[in-house]
Design goal:
Helix content is 29%, strand content 22%. It is of the alpha+beta class and 222 residues long. A hairpin with a 4-residue loop joins β9 (198-202) and β10.
C-alpha cells in the first residue's frame, strides 16, 4: 500500500535560502531542457532523450557561466530535465497541452529530492547537499525541522519526494510504501443453541446466562 503524506517545513534563514536556490535551479533546468527539445524539433530533429540532455547539462554545469549550478544537488536538475522531457513527450501523445516554460514570478517554486538519499527522523528531514562540510555544526544545516512530528515513518521506502513553496510556507510531500495489512481467516466455526434456562449455549461449551428483570422470566414480559 502506498500513502501520500504532506508535511510543512520550518527552515531557518540559511536553509530557506538553499530551498529557493534549489527551486531556482530546478526551474532553470526544466526550461533549458524544454527549449532544447523545441529548438531541436523546429530544426527537424527527433526527440532528445532525457539521458542525452542530462549529459549535455553536466558539461554546462562545469562551464564558467553556470558554475553556480555546482552548488546544487545534481539530482535536483536531473529530475527537472526528466520532468520536462516527460511533459514534452506527453504533448505529442495527446495526453496534455504543450508544456509551458516556468516563470520566475508566476510558477510555484518546487524541486525534487532523491528518494534513496533523503532521510527522515521523527522531527527533521535531511536534504542532500545543503552543506558538504564534515563538521557537525555544518552538517546540521542539512536537517530541516518538520512542523508535525512522527507523521512520516523513518524506516520506510519513499517515492517521489517533492518540496514546494505556496507563497507562505515550504512543504514536503512524499509517497510512503506500507506493508499490506491482510487478515488471516480460518475455517473454525461455532454453533449456538438458544434456550430459556441459559440464554445461549455455544458448541465450544461457553454458556451465557439468561438475564432476569425483577424476578420476571423473559417469557412473562409484556
Amino acid at each position: 500500500m502506498v500513502k501520500a503524506i504532506k508535511v510543512m517545513l520550518i527552515p531557518n534563514n540559511i536553509q530557506e535560502t538553499k530551498l529557493f536556490q534549489y527551486a531556482g535551479a530546478s526551474r532553470f533546468a526544466y526550461n533549458w531542457a524544454l527549449a532544447r527539445e523545441k529548438e531541436n524539433y523546429e530544426k527537424g530533429g527527433k526527440f532528445i532523450s532525457d539521458s542525452e540532455l542530462r549529459k549535455e547539462f553536466t558539461k554546462l554545469r562545469h562551464s564558467d557561466e553556470y558554475a553556480w549550478l555546482l552548488n546544487i544537488s545534481n539530482n535536483v536538475t536531473k529530475q527537472a530535465i526528466k520532468d520536462a522531457c516527460t511533459a514534452y513527450k506527453n504533448f505529442f501523445k495527446g495526453l496534455q497541452k504543450f508544456p509551458r516554460f516556468k516563470s520566475r514570478k508566476r510558477s510555484m517554486p518546487k524541486f525534487y529530492q532523491d528518494n534513496v538519499k533523503i532521510q527522515f527522523s521523527n522531527t527533521h528531514v535531511k536534504f542532500e547537499g545543503f552543506s558538504s562540510s564534515r563538521k557537525a555544526n555544518k552538517q546540521k544545516r542539512n536537517w530541516v525541522r518538520l512542523a508535525e512530528h512522527g507523521r512520516i515513518p523513518t524506516d520506510a521506502k519513499y517515492r517521489n519526494p517533492r518540496i514546494s513553496f505556496d507563497g507562505l510556507n515550504w512543504w514536503i510531500s512524499v509517497c510512503v510504501e506500507f506493508p499490506d495489512c491482510k487478515e488471516t481467516l480460518n475455517e473454525d466455526g461455532i454453533g449456538i443453541d438458544l434456550g430459556i434456562k441459559d440464554l445461549a449455549v455455544c458448541s465450544d461449551s461457553v454458556k451465557y446466562k439468561t438475564i432476569f428483570y425483577k424476578g420476571i422470566m423473559p417469557s412473562e414480559r409484556i
